[in-house]
Write the structure tokens for this entry.
Amino acid sequence: MELESAFHPASTPDYLPPVRMRELQLDRLRAVVRRAYGNVPLFRERLDARGLGPEDIRSLGDLRRLPFTTKADLRDTYPFGLFASPIEEVVRLHASSGTTGKPIVVAYTAQDLEVWTSVMVRALAACGLTHGDIVQNAYGYGLFTGGLGAHYGVESLGATVIPVSGGNTDRQIMVMKDFRVTAICCTPSYFIHLLERAGELGVNVRELPLRVGIFGAEPWTESMRRHIEIEGGIQAFDIYGLSEIIGPGVAVECSYHSGLHIFEDHFYPEIVDPETGGVLPDGEEGELVLTTLSKQAMPMIRYRTRDITSLAPEPCPCGRTVRRIGRIGRRSDDMMIVRGINVFPSQIEAALLAVEGTLPHYQIILTRQKGLDAIEVQVEITPELFSDKVGAMESLHGRLSYALEQTLGLRVDVTLAAARSIRRSEGKAQRVIDRRNLGEGRHENPSTVALPRK
Amino acid sequence: MKIHQLSLFLENRPGQMAPPCKLLAGAGINIRTLTLADTERFGILRMIVSDWQRSRSLLEDAGYLVNVTEVVAVEVADSPGGLGELLEVFEDTEINIEYMYAFTFGPLGRAALIFRFDQPDAAIDRLRAAGLNVLEDVEVYHRIAV
């Protein structure tokens, strides 16, 4: 297969013998723990409380003695509390949505950006890209890490980047066709939307030079991949990353599409039991915990990603020796990813509470319409909220919509629901009904989807 | 003076209106008049019923959210100009009509107008001063109903 022949010198670490990789990881782990202990008060306090110091890291196995870092830690130390570099050395900030409306801020030194670019180059090379490829980067440019992360990776690879950013679907299709684009980076749901719009405009994407799609920032399924590959006439790759660790480029599929190779010389993976936090052996499914081995500005030690996967240590037919993680299908917390944006039910509660001072019963319904995620929030009317005047109810609807959209950064369809119309479940309320894998059934396999219980 | 109107919140989809009406009918309660305010997203069913306290408990027990509003019922002649003359009462005042609806009754060609005022007491004073018949609850249900 021609894609397998693509090799880039930056990819060398992908092929390190495992023994060499472990030595490199241990050296870097010791250095990053020293750095975090010396510069991040929260981390130092937690180690001191356990009677541990950086010198206690003598093997990779000692990593499990260190405390976890969570998204709550980023929120509690907002905005700069976990930085391990003085601001004079920080050359870039990004931010992603957090649980309470405040974003989570991440920082990069010049060296961090070099690392980020290098792992993106390795990711793009694994997807078979090389110089001569024309890459349409339809990830959003801005605070979101997706746009700029992919951008510098493509440039450094020596391919041509088109920084078209997200949105404006008709222009995306024009660019794809007229600029003879060979690869595209975006969310898988947006690509499905592009395919449908192209069809409406009479553009057959299969006949265009486009041959590779690199899709990430939201979970997707094998049936979506089949649909995308058949309808788009391309090979579709899954890329994984998160802002807290670096952005896109933490792990990526190779042309064998059998799990995502994790660039473990920079991001050390562990799989833990989400309940007990105990480390699980390779092959077992649990929560992915990542430690940044080379980050300067914001080292993350044992960061709880909340993504559920497993680690495959077996060699890959592609020849890469770095381990693979399984495709992320679910999470251990209640975070939803809608159009690439992180959404927590707690954000929705906070917004509803802010509007009228009481928390009505509510339900979140996620659907996929024309390939795009849509979020509907059904809010049950309470005696305090109900008025006999239409104007008052319309105004309530407007206030709820505004508060939710401001908090989430997404268009939200608010539905006012009759009292007691949203089903109460025993025990934990079923706040989220995700119908995204059921909608538009022709490219989905309903048998793989858990239906909400009646 | 003021009469009690019940309002129900209805979702804007088929089959929402019949159940509360049947519920009241089953309990022998007569709906004197009703109006449905509808929007693209929801509806508000407003009703004047023969026993508002019992109706409210019945509806609430059945899970409906019931809003009780005091509205003003005024008797006018069911002939051209009846409403126009009445509205003159509120010219040059700050009294605002939030909404209104009407129904006719009896063999003598009378009509009743139901008003939701922002200042109901001031409105009633004006109406009375103009010699108009502001109906009591009991009149709306019994006298008119015969």
